[in-house]
Amino acid sequence: MRSSLLLLLLALLTTVTKAKVFSRCELAHLLQEEGLNGYGGYSLANWLCMAFYGSTFNTAAQNIKADGSADYGIFQISSQQWCTDDRSPSDNRCRMACRDLLSSNITDDVICAKRIVRNPQGMDAWEGWTMHCKGRDLSEWVEGCDL
Questions:
Q1: Are 93 and 115 within 8 A, CB to CB?
Q2: pLDDT of residue 7 exceeding 80
Q3: Is the Cα dihedral 134, 75, 123, 41 positive or negative?
Q4: C-alpha angle 16-73-115 in degrees, rounded to nearest 5
Q5: In the chain, where does DSSP find H-type helix?
Q6: pLDDT tens across 65-110, in order?
């Protein structure tokens, strides 16, 4: 047990060194370049709001859930359905390792998020978006970003 914990800690420390915390406008520009503005019918402001409430724009964010699954990366993508880890069984619909969602390169995160939002649930798949962003004026999320 102790060696497993030590290995997990080392893996997390390695991930943290490759991680990045984006500023709001920096992420807005990057998400726009990645084609998320309007993707699935959701504005760039929706994507920013969701990322903030999920990870505070931190690519290394991880949230371990009571059922043993976890959410990973800037968009808090679930290991239960979308990526695979060593913690819990997964449908792995994005065909990727969850650890790949923890780096500063968020291209794979964006590809997987696009896949998630194409499902009937859309952005309701993210609880943080549903609670804090859905149906609200989100113009402040892109304000001053010179897009």
A1: yes
A2: no
A3: positive
A4: 150
A5: 2-17, 24-33, 44-55, 107-117, 127-132
A6: 999 999 999 999 999 999 999 888 889 999 999 999 999 999 999 9
How far apart are the C-alpha atoms of 109 and 103, rounded to whole Å? 9
User: What is the pLDDT at residue 12?
Assistant: 52
Report whether 31 contacts 7 (CB < 8 A). no
Whole-angstrom CA distances from 59 to 1, 25, 95, 99, 101 are 27, 15, 19, 10, 7
The alpha carbon dihedral of 81, 47, 35, 20 has a sign of negative
| Residue 63 scores a pLDDT above 50 | yes
Report how far residue 132's alpha carbon sits from residue 98's, in angstroms, rounded to the nearest whole number: 25
CB under 8 Å to 70, separation ≥6 — which residues? 62, 63, 64, 78, 79, 85, 87, 88, 98
